[in-house]
Amino acid sequence: MLTLLRLLEDGRFHSGQAIGDALCISRNAVWKQVQRLESELGIALNRVRGRGYQLASPLVLLNDAVLRDKGLSDIWPFHIYESVDSTSAEATRLVAKGVEPPFLVLSERQTSGRGRRGRIWQSPFGVNVYSSLVLRVQKGARQLEGLSLVVGLAVMRALRASGLDDAGLKWPNDILVGGKKIAGILLELTGDPADVCHVVVGVGVNVNMANAEGIEQPWTSMKLELQRMVDRNEFVCVLSRQLHEHLSRHAELGFAAFQEEWESNHLWQGREVMLASGTQRIEGMVLGIDRVGALRLSVGGVEQRFSGGEISLRLRDDRRA
User: Fold this and answer.
1) CA dihedral 34, 39, 41, 42 (to 10 degrees)
2) Which 3 state secondary structure label does DSSP give 235?
3) 136 in catalytic set
4) Does pLDDT of 277 surpass 90?
5) What does each C-alpha distance from 233 to 80, 179, 305 come to in angstroms?
6) How does 41-79 read in b/e, with b if 16+ C-beta sit within 10 Å?
7) What share of the chain is helix, strand, coil (3-state, %, to 5)?
8) Between residues 138 and 203, which one has the greater pLDDT?
9) 40: which of 111, 171, 237, 307 lies 20 to 30 Å off by Cα?
């Protein structure tokens, strides 16, 4: 199916005979592959008698040769998949097989993409960036302080470099444009956090997605904001360069070096919010973050600090859980 998609990627009509000749299969087999594209991958095709098949919407597939030509392999090794359950799960499996970090896992789609708090991350084929970067952490848990916030900064910088000047941050690790979520981050640890461990940095970015069902919060994409298709290969390289730069600086200087920059790009700085942690609900005003990335809230005039994985933050007038 991927070979067929690469043939159709040019956006032109291709006859069944031409496709069959290119793939060395019969016209009946071509028809079956087209059926699979539509049913299994959700790819819509135009069919016109006498002209053949054409993608109903443009598609920019990840391409190993293009990514290497753009310099991704100079930043870190990478692996591209047609489909995985999740890039983070596949990254963890590769570590277990002895693949040495750092390395990047990319996929055209995820069948079980994960977000924070157990939520599903919508991962349609060939339209967004689904990536997981594996790093080795050798200096204990202190090297992890504020790491997800630093990754958020890197993603924000990549989006701004791609034309989204109003991209900003929402604690702890969402990136918003116009109040709508465009990217999210999920960090997972394997090994001993007190000694040597691996951290899997999962990053999902809505790139060319134009519609989706089942998303519980306002969302947007690079295509919707820029009103044009985005080359996912180019964006992966821009993102990787930003990640490499920010992560190298974090490993050397720690999160304190990023605290001021992060606060200056926090869209909810000074806003009244509601923090949810389990059954607990706390209302307060965002003061900022501390030197390890914990959220500082003014609650009844008293400063309190919050950190941890299962925390949700909403504006006070937004009562969704």
Assistant:
1) 100
2) helix
3) no
4) no
5) 11, 26, 39
6) bebeeeeeeeebbebeeebbbbbeebbeebebeebbebb
7) 35, 30, 40
8) 203
9) 237
27 labelled catalytic? no
- Cβ 124 vs Cβ 212: under 8 Å: yes
Among 70, 114, 116, 232, which one carries the catalytic annotation?
116
**Active-site residue (options: 119, 160, 249, 314):** 314
Q: Is 205 helix (H, G, I), strand (E, B) or coil?
A: strand
**CA-only gyration radius of the chain, Å:** 21
Looking at residue 91, its amino acid is A
Average pLDDT rounded to a whole number, residues 140-146? 77
Give the pLDDT band (50/70/90) at residue 225. Answer: very high
State pLDDT tens for residues 72-101. Answer: 999 999 999 999 999 999 999 999 999 999
* Options 157, 181, 223, 241, the catalytic residue: 181
Residue pair 204/144 in contact (Cβ under 8 Å)? The answer is no
Q: Which two tokens stand for residue 131?
A: 């990536």
pLDDT band for position 255 (50/70/90)? very high
181 an active-site residue?
yes
CA torsion through residues 105, 107, 111, 113, sign: positive
What span, in angstroms and rounded, lies between the C-alpha atoms of 47 and 13? 9
Q: Which residues pair with 58 in a beta bridge?
A: none
What pLDDT band is residue 57 in, cutting at 50, 70 and 90?
confident
pTM: 0.90
The token duo for 181 is: 């979520």
Residue 196 has pLDDT above 60, yes or no: yes
Compute the distance between CA of residue 98 and CA of residue 100 in angstroms, rounded to an integer: 6
